[in-house]
User: Fold Glycosyltransferase from Enterococcus entomosocium.
Amino acid sequence: MIEVEQKRLPWAKKVVYFLAFVFSLIYLSWRGLYTLPWHESWFALLFGLLLWGSEIVSNFTGLLLIWNKNKAKPFEKPVVPEADYPAIDVLIATHNEEVPLLLKTVNAAVHMKYPDPKKVHIYLSDDTNRPEVKALADKFGIGYIGLIGNQHAKSGNLNHALSKTNSPLVATFDADMIPYSDFLLETVPYFVANQQERRNDQTIKPLGFVQTPQSFYNADLFQYNLFSEAAIPNEQDFFSREVNVLNNAHDTAIYTGSNTVIAREAIEAAGGFPTDTITEDFELGALINCQGYRSLSTLQPMASGLSPIDIPSALKQRIRWGRGVVQSVHNLHLFKNKTLSLAQKMVFLNSYLYWWSFLRRLLFIFAPILYTVFNVRVVETNFWVLLLFWLPSYTFLHLAMQDLSSDIRTQRWGEIQETIFAPYLVIPVFLQAIGIKETRFKVTNKAATQSKKDLLFVVPHLLLLILTIIGLVKFNYGKFGSEIFYGSVLTFWLLTHFFNLTFAVLFYLGRPIYRTTERFRAHYPVEVSDQDASYSLMTENISENGLSFVSDVPLYFPPDAPLTFKITRNGYQAEMTGNIVRVFSGKDRWVYGVALNQLTEKDYLAYLQIIYDGFNQSLPVLRDPWMTFFDSLFENLGKHLLQAKQKPLPPQRVPILTIDQKWHFDEGTYAVTTFGFDQFTLAKTEEVEMPVHLNLPISNLVLHAEKATLQPKENQVIYQVSNLSELRSTVALQEWVDSLLRKEADDDRDPAAI
Assistant:
């Protein structure tokens, strides 16, 4: 690994960080010494102690992030000779996933690039020993490792696979994680360079594993349910591409279970995948660190998987992660562990404390509610003393965190995400902490669908939102001037929680899912052909069952006639057929939506690579800095209301030009309002009887049209073009349409035409 020299921290930031630490220390000390409700009820005292403890932990984790960010050093991927790339085993772990999902991962794995492909050994590790999975492995010419009677979930599956393989490096993938073709080229060089460095200096730590970010090709529930697919990155990006990369400063990146390359000797030194936890990945990574190995997290995604699309699956996944991390940290005996440095312990402690942030969030929400709604005082102080101690601490810590807020996530979005999950994670994490364990491993269901029952998950947040509103009204009703000012701190926190809870309610109200497969923004060359013509165009987006392409000029394709599409990208080429299902005009272009027919197997596999070999550019990797918290809130409220009223319009299947021109037919001159290739519309005049037939000279051809039988509007007359096939067989029609557009554009620019 090549480390890049770190820039020095500006003195102004040093001052802000220092003051944040000092004022936080003063505030928390004052809170503990002078504000606890010793003379109130036992409930108030217990809640007050928990609230104070939560503030201590929140400030500690904030300061820990500041420390981590200032210790981090940028790095570059090393360049190593191709001959030095070692053999590697690629293990795709599967339990009960369907074959079509596995096929995408296997297809991508066999397309991974490597200097010597013979050194790459790919295996499907199936702990349910399914014949159809073995058939899939045989079809692609890869290894199959079946297992019967597995007692240790994913750990047992991978340990069994490790016993059947022997390459020095091991790559692990979950069943739904589709690797990019450059995955091995972007990860293996770190191991080669590390070995070369250790030959010259044995004091350099051996590299245990390289973790690439967990990435997803579909919008997660936060992005989708909150209409934020274009505004915020995936919720897990903050950890994968921010926090875990910062952990590199302490050689302690966390293993997240997939999209990872691990040194086999490091796994063996750690005793294999641990079987006493439901987050075997997290614990194995920590055990590898305990054995003196370093771990590294890279910044760029090298594989993408499927994020849960229903609320129960997302909650089950988080509960499993939370329980597992708490269990694994207990297994590590973190504070007694002598094999980890203090900095490494802080990394794992931070992971542990994260799962208690949901309890802290509930305490923060309830604290002002208890006082304003139920008259339970959990903090004993007066306004001016509170302002004196709290405001400097809050201000400077907020400034420090704002400075640290990356282009991935802001502190506000972090609070919203904690609020959304809080009611459902507090009890499982607490039970795990006191030793009441999850009885069995639960695989996240990636094939689940939405259900109306999911609306019940909104109940806790709705109740909290109602209590917050009651608190706001009750506390401020009848107050004026200085009275409102003296209560401003409580009002501030009630309003903060009101906004966070509003987002949570909107999240659980959900949003209908219309697409069966994910759409990728993609600008690739595509050749579109029908029986009469062929065009070289560009795709706009693609999916497994459809695509869209764009044209600078309106093109006519018979609505029911099959079209042929040839798409090329990075050496992949796929040919398929489909039909136009939608046409609309964009800014200076026309967009055509296509429903694809079933592909041949060869073209389907190539098309999968065209789609999935790379990050889904339809989704953001950075947050939109111009989208404020309030912008997002009002947009969400508007779109949730709109989706309840909105009725989709019938799709337009041919391009229709809106024009205002006079055409000189053989039968006379008439005003034309629209033209759609197979039909056009004339403005009707009461004085003139419109002819049944019209003939329009076009170059050396004649457009023949007949008056349509059905006339939906009284002031317009629709004519059907009767010889369109003849016209399309020459370039004359398209040249004439282009001239119409030029004339319309010239008229728009000519003030005299207005």
Residues 197 and 563 are 57 Å apart (CA to CA). The first helix runs from residue 11 to 34. The first strand starts at residue 2 and ends at 3. Residues 750-754 have pLDDT under 50 and may be disordered.
